[in-house]
Amino acid sequence: MKTSLQSGQPAAVETELLVIFTTDGATGKDAKPEISLLTEEEAVKQAASQVLATGEFASASNETLLLHSPQGLKAKRLLLVGLGKASKATPHDVRKAAGTAVRFAKPRKLRELTITVPSGTSFDPTATVRAIVEGAIVADFDPDTYRSDRKDQSIQSLTILAPAPIDQKAAETGHQEGVIIGESQNFTRHLVNEPGNHMTPTVLGAEAAEMSKEFGLKCDVYGEEKLHELKMGAFWSVSQGSYEPPALIIMTYEPKNAPADGPVLGLVGKGITFDTGGISIKPADNMEKMKYDMAGGAAMIGAMRAIAQLKPAVKVIAIVCAAENMPSGKAYKPGDVVTAMSGKTIDVINTDAEGRLVLADGLSYAKQLGATHLIDAATLTGAVAVALGQINAGVFANDEDAYQHFSTALDRSGERFWRLPLEEEYRDQIRSDIADIKNTGGRYGGAVTAAMFLKEFAEDTPWLHLDIAGLAWLDETKPWIAKGPTGVAVRSIVEWVRSYSN
Fold first, then answer.
1. Which tens digits make up the pLDDT trace of 442-484?
2. Confidence of residue 261 (pLDDT cuts 50, 70, 90)
3. What angle do CA 264, 266, 271 make, to 5 degrees?
4. Share of residues in the chain with pLDDT > 70 (%)
5. How far apart are CA 322 and CA 246, in angstroms?
6. Distance (Å, rounded) from C-alpha 290 to C-alpha 102?
7. pLDDT tens digits, residue range 79-93?
8. What SS3 class is residue 290?
9. Under 8 Å between Cβ of 283 and 378
C-alpha cells in the first residue's frame, strides 16, 4: 500500500472513496443519536444530511454508511465510519475505524481511498494520524497467501487528508511513524502466518537476518553448538526431539546517541515454530494453529524492525529462542531434570510447558549480554486466555518503574493488557522435590505460575512478561482486521522502548 499525506478540503478531493469519521453526542440510555461528522467541511455535512435525518445510521463503533455520488463533492463515494460515543472516542477508536474503512473497500474492488483526519476533537494530531495509518496498513493484510485462486484485493493507494487547522508537521510525523509501525506489525503477522513446514527455526533466523541487514541492525544466528557452549540446557532440551535444528537469534540496535550510562533493554521472544506438546502431546483438535506459537518471537523481530527506523536513543538487544517441540526417541520426557544456563535445575513435569524453558535461557543470556531491563513476549499459557478472554493480554512485572513505562506505552499503542499478580505465595506451586524448580504448577493460576517460573530467571533485573496467547491469533474476522495472526505486542514493545529514550 502506497500512502501519502495531503492538506486540503474534503469536498475538493477526487477519490474513489472519501472516508469521514463520525461520533454520537447523545447521552442517556435511550437518547436519540446525535450524529456529528468530524469535519469542518459544510459540503460534506450537507451531502450526508438527508440520510442522517432518517436515523438509520447511529455512529456505533465501526458502523458504516456508504453514499454514492455525494452531492457537492468530487469524491465518487462517501463512507461514514462511526467512532461510537463522542465522550469516549479516542485515537485508538480512529485506528479501528480506519481499518474498518479499508476492510470495507477491499471486497468492493476499490483500490484507492482517502481518509480524512477528524476535526473538532481534542485528539493529538500526531497520535491520530499515526493511528489512521497503522489501522489502514494492518487492515490491508489477508492470510490466504497459499490459495491458488487467491484474488489480490490489496489497497494500492491511501491518502491521508489533513485539512486546516490541523498541524501539518505533527501530521507528517504521525504519518511516518504510522507507516513504520504498521508495516512492522504486518511483518510480524507474515512470520506468524507461515506454515510450520515453511517457517522452521532456521528460516525464522534467516528472516530476522535479512530484515536486520535491510534496516541496519546487527544480527547473529546460532545453532546447536552455541546452545551447548552457553550451557543452555533448558532451551536445548525443548529442541532435541526435532530433526529441525534450533536457532538462537540475537539482534542488536546500538545508536551512537545512546547515553553511555543509560539502560540497555533486553527483548526476549518465544520462537516455537511448531508445538506438538512433545511427549505430553496436545489433542489433535486445533493443533494446526500451533504454528503461531512463535508469535512472541515474531513480535520481537517486528519490534526491532520498527526500532531500527524510529531510532530511539537507547541500546536494545533482542533474543529469539527458536525451536520445534516434537515427540521422538530423542525428545525430552516428563520427569527429566534439565539444567538451565543460570545453573538452576528444572524438573520437567509436562513437556508442553516448553515456552518457559526456552525463555529461561533467553532471559539469562540477555542479562549476560548487558541488558539492564527485560521484557519477554510469548504465547505462553492457555490459562491467560481462560482468565482474560480475547479482550486483554496478560502482563506481569517485578518492578514498578518498568511497569509504569509499559503503562505509558499502552496509552500510545492502544493495545490492551491487564496486569496479573506475582505474589510470592504462588512460588509454592512450582517447588520441586527433586530439583530447584518444576516447569508447571498445575491447573490453578496457570498463567501466574508460568510467570513465577520466568521470574526465577529474571531475578532482580527489572522485568516484564507479556503472555499474549489469547490475542496473538483471531479465530474470526473483525471489521478492522482479518482473522489469523494479529501482530499483538509489537506496538506496545516499540513504545516501551521509546519511553526509555532521551
1. 999 999 999 999 999 999 999 999 999 999 999 999 999 999 9
2. very high
3. 160
4. 100
5. 6
6. 29
7. 999 999 999 999 999
8. helix
9. no
Number of alpha carbons in the 13 Å side-chain half-sphere of residue 340: 27
In whole angstroms, what is the distance from residue 239 CA to residue 392 CA?
Answer: 30
**Residues 353, 355: Cα–Cα separation, whole Å:** 6
Concatenated DSSP letters of 407-453: HHHHHHH---EEE----GGGGGGG--SSSSEES---STTHHHHHHHH
Tell whether the model's pLDDT for residue 243 goes beyond 90. yes
CA atoms within 13 A on the CB side of 461: 26
H helix runs in 257-339, sequence order: 295-310
pLDDT at 183 over 90: yes
Residues annotated catalytic, as ranges? 282, 356
One-letter amino acid for residue 37 of the chain = L
CB 56 within 8 A of CB 33: no
Chain centre distance of CA 419: 17
Q: Per residue in 17-56, pLDDT tens?
A: 999 999 999 988 888 899 999 999 999 999 999 999 999 9
- The Cβ-side half-sphere exposure at 474, using a 13 Å CA radius, reads 18
Contacting residues for 306 by C-beta, under 8 A, at least 6 apart = 180, 181, 184, 490, 494
Listed residue (197, 195, 160, 192) closest to 175, CA to CA: 160
Could you tell me which residues come within 8 angstroms of residue 40 by beta carbon, excluding any fewer than 6 positions away?
Answer: 119, 120, 163
Note the pLDDT of residue 151. 87
Specify the residue for cell string 458502523.
Answer: 63
